[in-house]
Amino acid sequence: AMGVSFLITTGAEVLTLLLSFTAAYAIARFQIPEARWMEMGFGMGFLIPVFAVLVPVFLLAAKTGLLYNPLFLVMFYAASRLPLTIMVLASNMRGIPRELEECAIIDGANVIQTMRHVFFPLVRSGIATVLILTFLYVWNEYLFALVLLSRKTRTVQLVIPLLKSERLVDYGLVAAGIVISLLPPYLIFMIFQERVMKGMLGGAVKG
To answer: Is 177 left (phi over 0), alpha (psi -120 to 50) or beta?
Structure first.
């Protein structure tokens, strides 16, 4: 179960960063009227209740033939985290002086090279924030993992309730399972908590 949780979390992290970084760059740096509307569209994702999408997501997984497949859960987690990750990264990218981007273009860099060599190093705090918040969400998520995964691919959060039997509860075993499941997110947050705070405040103050 720990291995399944690590695989799903890692896949969701990579996919979320790839999609949110490119989308945030387009929203923050492309001077087109549609960029503002795109950001507002992603921001509306905060207004959607979790339980409202449970049945549609289950039906979508069944229609695509990916029900009980961890790959579908990875894609769903990445999609559900896009509103927050795009807002955080776009806010950080707006604080980067446009002169740096113009210098890279003058030196012959294309859009991909500009994102990789200019923006990626300068928004590391925002990227760390996105990765840590995504890790904490995906690792601790229970409801969709319960509905969309089979018995063979349970995550650690689904296995902990199974540590007790019908007639007897071994509280020591359950407590050990809870502590083990809490160690990865606790250690990651304690190590990178300063980067998380810095990334959340990035772009909030100019000058």
So the answer is: alpha
User: At which residue do the structure tokens 């927050």 appear?
Assistant: 84
Q: Which amino acid is at 114?
A: T
| Secondary structure of residue 202 in the 3-state scheme | coil
The pLDDT tens digits of the residues spanning 91-128 come to 888 888 888 888 888 888 888 888 888 888 888 888 88
Contact predicate 25/122, CB 8 Å: no
Quick one: tokens of 115? Answer: 């994102």
pTM for this model (two decimals)? 0.84
* Residues with Cβ within 8 Å of residue 8, at least 6 apart in sequence: 70, 73, 74, 77, 138, 145, 155
Question: Pick from 86, 96, 77, 85: which is nearest to 131 by CA?
Answer: 85
What is the rounded distance in angstroms from the CA atom of residue 28 to the CA atom of residue 43? 14
Closest to 203 (Cα-Cα) out of 39, 90, 92, 129: 92
